[in-house]
Each structure stands twice: as C-alpha cells, then as structure tokens.
Design brief:
Blueprint (H helix, E strand, L loop, with lengths): L6 E5 L8 E5 L8 E10 L2 H7 L16 E8 L11 E4 L2 E3 L5 H4 L11 E2 L11 E5 L4 E2 L6 H21 L6 E5 L5 H10 L3 E6 L5 H7 L3 E4 L3 H6 L4 E6 L7 H6 L1 E9 L11 H6 L3 E4 L5 H14 L5 E5 L3 H9 L6 E5 L5
Parallel strand pairs: 10-11, 10-13, 11-12, 13-14, 14-15, 16-17
Antiparallel strand pairs: 1-2, 3-4, 3-8, 3-17, 4-5, 5-9, 6-7
Helix pairs in contact: 3-4, 3-9
C-alpha cells in the first residue's frame, strides 16, 4: 500500500483563529517513524494555549492535538517496536535527544537538550493521519478503550508522574486542588496508590462526583473555618489549577515534610513563607508531563486498576464547539474528539 500523501486536518491558519479544514503534504516517512490513522483526540487546554500562541512558540498553520490514539498504517524500515494494525497513542513529547542522563533513565520530559513537542513546530492529531517517531508511540493496553486512553496521554501522565514520585507509602494524606480534567484523574490515581484523598474545589456541586472518583473527603476551598481546621494535615497537595488563589492557605495545609506540587501553572507568581518552609521542612516543587518510563507504567497501572477519565465524545468536525465548551468550563471532565471517519 502506498502511504497517504495528503493529510486532512482542522487547523488554525493564524493566531487565535477558529479551526478550519486544511490539508498538507507530510514529509516522507523517516526510517524511525510510523504513520497512524487517527481515531481519537483528547482536548487539552494546552491545545488552546498553542492556538492562541500564549507561549510564543506556535507556528501557523497550526494543527493541535497531543492526546492522540490511532491505528498504525505504515512503519519506517528501522521500526521494530510496533507493527501495522497496532493501536497506539502519542502524548506531548514527540522526540528528545535520547542520550543525556535524563533521557537514558526514561525522563525525556526534562531532556537536557530540550524535548520536541508533538505540536511545537509539527502538526498534531486533529487530522486523519499523523507521522511521528515510533519510540514515542505507546501501545494501548487491550482493556483500555481508545476514548478513555486518549486523555491519559497528557492529563493522565501529568498527574501520575508526581503522585508516583511523592506517594511513598499507603495512608499518606493527599490533597488534590481543582477537580477538572487533571484533578479528577489525580483523585483516581491517588486513591489507587493507597492514599487518603481529599478533593478541594471552589465548586460545591462537585462533591458527589469527587467522591465517586475516589475522594475520601471533599472540601470547598473558601470555607475559611474548615480550611483552618485542616492546617498541617497533608503530606502532599497537588495543584492542578491555573487560577489565582491564596497560596499561603495551601502552604499552611502541609504537614512537616509536606510537599506542594504544581502541575497547573497559576496566573501569577507565588510567595513562599520562608519561616514555615524552613521550620516545617516543607517543599514546593513542579512537575511537567512524564517520560517514557512513567508513561508506559501509567498506562499499565490504569488498565490494571481500570482508571479511566470521565469523557464526553464529540466529532472532530465540531472541534470549535468543543473548544468553546472547554473555555466555558462546561467540560465534564474531558472532551474526546472522535475522528470523522469513525463516526
């Protein structure tokens, strides 16, 4: 079979524009690459940041989509890790140097020479086909359906990696700040890892769902007296929110040796109370997606424990409507775009 030479996509032709049908001719398939027929895309807020060029790295036309699941249709001559017909996924990382100390231990997310993003200078998954290096394609376990697997490839790994790193033993008290696309998965993973989980949200109407996801406790963020009573209680607080809050409150919730970990970028800088930091031996850390080691482990862990996101399916041709819904905070909790030929 001759590889497809024209890829059909939905692209932003200029910064901030609505996506529209657009076709391009891909570069020839490299020896270490594969081509997939895209079936599903998770819609991540990072896609919108890229469409709007919020980070000043976008190139147009821009084809977003970095939580991609599809079927392998072509393989480069050097590829041995997958075969035609396999179901695989791609996440945020398209490539890395492969040779630095971090890459060699499976932490390509902090490659010393800089990783290559799937949609940074390259076209992503809002398309009928995608080509990318086979080494960053992940086989999807048989008992994970494609719609559930797609959001795990970015949202899932983003929360799994720090939870896997900092949850040292069962019974640790973990707070998840923000119950959205990332937060609801964090609750599920933390519960499965044996933690005692508290979900924090500004939306009281999320309590029932948070407990269905596995939270032992739910706390409305702005309940001042109740928050005061929880001070010094948590071994780990994972912040998944991009909005501005009183970070002193979050920091005061930590116990001795407690960790405040950011995976969502707040809209402003934060100040850290140094006396509490030093005397309490507390830590403030960040975490960004995850490398191949944790990605493979996360997919297996999710399959074994049946950890799946709550998803809403929409056809790819309604991608602009899906983006509007996400921006209006109406997604519950991850929109997955199904490629048009699969509808």
């Amino acid at each position: 079979m001759t590889p497809q030479t024209t890829f059909k996509t939905y692209a932003a032709l200029n910064v901030g524009e609505r996506l529209q049908p657009w076709e391009y001719e891909p570069l020839p398939l490299k020896a270490d690459e594969i081509e997939i027929r895209v079936t599903h895309n998770g819609l991540c807020h990072t896609d919108i940041h890229m469409i709007d060029n919020d980070w000043k790295v976008s190139q147009y036309p821009l084809v977003a989509g970095h939580e991609v699941v599809g079927i392998v249709t072509e393989i480069g001559e050097q590829v041995t890790s997958v075969k035609k017909g396999d179901r695989v996924g791609f996440g945020w990382i398209r490539n890395s140097c492969r040779v630095c100390d971090y890459c060699l231990q499976g932490e390509e997310n902090i490659c010393r020479h800089g990783l290559t993003g799937l949609i940074v200078g390259n076209h992503g998954g809002f398309a009928d086909r995608l080509r990318a290096p086979a080494d960053f394609a992940y086989k999807i376990p048989d008992n994970l359906d494609s719609a559930s697997a797609a959001p795990l490839l970015c949202a899932g790994i983003t929360v799994y990696a720090p939870l896997r790193t900092y949850i040292k033993h069962p019974g640790m008290k973990v707070g998840v700040l923000g119950i959205g696309g990332l937060g609801h998965l964090a609750v599920k993973f933390a519960r499965a890892m044996g933690a005692e989980v508290t979900a924090f949200s500004a939306s009281a109407n999320k309590e029932a769902e948070a407990k269905e996801f596995g939270a032992h406790h739910f706390q409305k963020w702005d309940s001042v007296s109740e928050m005061k009573a929880l001070e010094g209680s948590f071994d780990l607080i994972l912040s998944t929110i991009p909005s501005k809050i009183d970070w002193d409150i979050a920091f005061n919730l930590l116990s001795y040796n407690g960790i405040l970990c950011f995976v969502g970028l707040p809209v402003s800088e934060i100040t850290i109370p140094l006396v509490s930091l030093v005397v309490g031996q507390k830590k403030v850390v960040g975490s960004v997606v995850g490398g191949r080691r944790f990605m493979r482990e996360m997919l297996d862990f999710a399959a074994l424990n049946q950890i799946t996101p709550m998803v809403e399916l929409m056809p790819l041709h309604q991608v602009n409507e899906a983006i509007a819904k996400l921006l209006a905070n109406q997604a519950r909790y991850r929109i997955v775009l199904v490629s048009d030929e699969n509808n």
